[in-house]
Amino acid sequence: MNPADEDDRFIETRGLVRTYRVGPATVQALAGVDLQVRRGEFLAVLGVSGSGKSTLLHLLGGLDTPTAGEVWVDGHKLSALGAYQRALYRRTTVGFIFQSYYLVPSLTAAENVALALTFQGTFGMQRSRLAVEAIGRVGLQHRAGHRPSQLSGGEQQRVAIARAIVHRPPLLLADEPTGNLDGATAAEIVSLLDEVHRKLGTTVVMVTHDEELVCQVADRLMYLRDGRLTRQQRAGL
User: Fold this and answer.
1) For residue 165, what is the domain's CATH number?
2) Which of 121, 125, 179, 183 is the most buried (most CB within 10 A)?
3) 99 lies in a domain?
């Protein structure tokens, strides 16, 4: 990031380390990652399985805490947040998309999206309106009344994206969101994330092992190997 971009810095990590105990062994998932992400940027984090991609995403989203180092998001130091503030951060600032869709089987697509708004304290007609709006944004208005078992994998992931963006979070974190999809459907999902990024101005951090899939939509590519940032470059170079 250039010095001129500092005022537009939305995410910053310094010396980010995360280690885990696995039996008698200590496994280092991240080994001192320094990262800056501009507000409204689409960053793709690339690396093979076990490189630390998902761990980094979990730390940015407040789902995990670092062993050492710090994470700032929108000027807030995550380690300074108490349990309630951290939960509030996850509910209001972050939208999560995972490889698995985590939809409630007994609820329709619209009901799954509306359920996310319950945690925001939004109820009644407003909740229904926002859910329908989010379902429409991902192109599934004609499937809003269908349950997950009646939807394809790509459609279920679209519902998961609608659920993640229904409260208009400034940060969208996507952890291998195309991992369970075929090539054509994966490309559609990445295109949809790009549309959300451009139309809503959302900052997107997506982790993936598929460079070809994201190189045309991401603003920047970052490569992790063995928990270390090896290089980063503008997309398309």
Assistant:
1) 3.40.50.300
2) 179
3) yes
Residues in contact with 173: Cβ distance below 8 Å, sequence separation at least 6, in sequence order? 57, 60, 61, 94, 95, 96, 97, 204, 205, 206
Q: How many CB atoms lie within 10 A of CB 184?
A: 8
**Is residue 84 a part of any domain in this protein?**
no
| pLDDT tens-digit readout, 15-46 | 999 999 888 888 899 999 999 999 999 999 99
Handedness of CA 133, 138, 139, 145 (dihedral sign): negative
- Are the beta carbons of 207 and 234 closer than 8 angstroms? no
132-181 pLDDT, tens digit each: 999 999 999 999 999 999 999 999 999 999 999 999 999 999 999 998 89
* Number of domains making up the chain: 1
What domain range includes position 184?
Answer: 39-65+93-234
